[in-house]
Amino acid sequence: MKGRAYGNVEKNDRHECTSNARLPLALVTLLSCLFAATVVVQGEDPYLFFTWNVTYGTLSPLGVPQQVILINGQLPGPTINCSSNNNIVVNVFNNLDEPFLLTWNGIQQRKNSWQEGLPGTSCPIPAGTNYTYHFQVKDQIGTYFYYPSTSIHRAAGGFGSIRVHSRLLIPVPFPDPEDEYDVLIGDWYNTSLSALKKTLDTGRRSIGKPGGVLINAKKNDDGGATFTMKPGKTYRYRFCNVGLKNSINVRIQGHSMKLVEIEGSHTIQNVYDSLDVHLGQCFSVLVTADQDPKQDYYMVASTRFTKTVLTATATITYATGNGKRAPASPLLPEAPVGWAWSLNQFRSFRWNLTASAARPNPQGSYHYGQINITRTIKLVNSATSVDGKLRYAINGVSHTDPVSETPMKLAEYYGVADKVFKYNIIEDQPAADGSKITTVATNVIDATFRNFVEIIFENHEKSIQSWHLSGYSFFPVAIEPGTWSPEKRKNYNLVDAVSRNTIQVYPNSWAAIMTTFDNAGMWNLRSMALDRHYLGQQLYISVLSPEHSLRDEYNIPDTALLCGIVQHLPKPAPYSI
């Protein structure tokens, strides 16, 4: 779909408002201006409304019929196509046979972790009922995605794209593309959802190798995904890795890719033949249709760092009428080998300091490298066994949701946190004696509002890790082999690290990120690998404002679902200005 779209309405790329039908551009522009004036008077940003029906369905992504999760009968689900500061209202009808939640990966939910859609923040939507999410994409632009956060539902689909465009008056550091394409890539299992869950619940082993790779829920060009380009025109491709286990490399036959955005930040516009997209990560690139228009081309997505390389292709075709066309060459461009190449590519990513993002001021006006660190948290991931069952842990603590089935955010808000979980079971540093004892518990750390923190991820394992922090963007200032120590700070990039929300950590390596805990709420720091996340490699960060003020955090929505021990408690006094 070309340009910006709101709901199911096609719009010109630089307009902000909605329409109920396709209208001539001049009329759309006039209505946009009139509506914008109305919005200014009312003091609210535009609203986008969606109604989503979540159901089971049967598809054959890898050639074998299997049960999947569909939204409005489709996989991927509907795209949320919006602009910075838009209000998003999504009425979700859960037609599955078990509770369900959606989370909005990368959307920061400023002051509003109530809408984060995680088991630690929200009660799940019971089967046969509905719940309406209402959140604002406040001061954000970029490429994101949503997916199910309950159980291991994301192994069955239920994912879709989120595009957040710059507002009309904010300059973008590249010309408007001819069109935009969402490209959701990732590995996929032929195994049924119930069988995968049983494997993890019994704890004998992990879920093993995936069955293949998909591009927009399809495997190859035989009925697979297709993208059309006009000769000489430039297109924006938004790649997100929505997979479960593996990093994916993407490339296009005969075409280079100019990187322009990573997870909400404009980048220095380097050109690449291929890109490593790790679990949970999103990239935007510009591709120009500058090759032979009578030839088709393959887009290739393949696994990285695996003994057996799994590959999917999609077809890129030029719009040249009905003339005879040559099929894409079966000789696919090769992927890079080894993680040293991937590390060097990461180091080539740089923040565009002069470009504006969601606000008029340049990105580089925020000098993160000049802020004093107030807390250092060093996290070491591990695979372990507890009572004979596989668990994944951070600093010896493996997260489990509360036995009372009460989201921690609700327990905190209702003043009964002590009946649901204990803060700070996990230490800021791994055990000095190298203890391998693992505690299975609800894992919540208490953080000071507006503190500037440094988080170190240290990976002693042989597999790559991918970490996501909800509620924030952060600066990944370094990734290096070996182990971290304070003197490593001299190697940090304190000038133009790309602000983002997901970071990879290579085997036997470490990564350092910096961020300010200025978004009050309950936020999740998690492994993006399905098995690791489900079996404990995650924690929550409680960031409370001492003022209990609406300036810092919104009240619980009147429509919020209640469950667990807070279900029948009186509602606490609301925050005020």
UniProtKB/TrEMBL annotation:
Output the superkingdom of the source species.
Answer: Eukaryota
**Alphabetic keyword roster:** Glycoprotein, Membrane, Transmembrane, Transmembrane helix
Q: Does the keyword Transmembrane helix apply?
A: yes
Instruction: Indicate what this protein is called per its UniProt record.
Output: L-ascorbate oxidase
Q: Where are the transmembrane segments?
A: 21-41
Name one matching Pfam family: Cu-oxidase
Q: Which SUPFAM superfamilies match?
A: Cupredoxins
Q: Name one GO molecular function term.
A: oxidoreductase activity
Q: Which part of the chain is the Plastocyanin-like domain?
A: 53-167, 181-318, 406-547
Organism of origin is Rhododendron simsii (Sims's rhododendron)
Name the family the entry cites.
Answer: Belongs to the multicopper oxidase family.
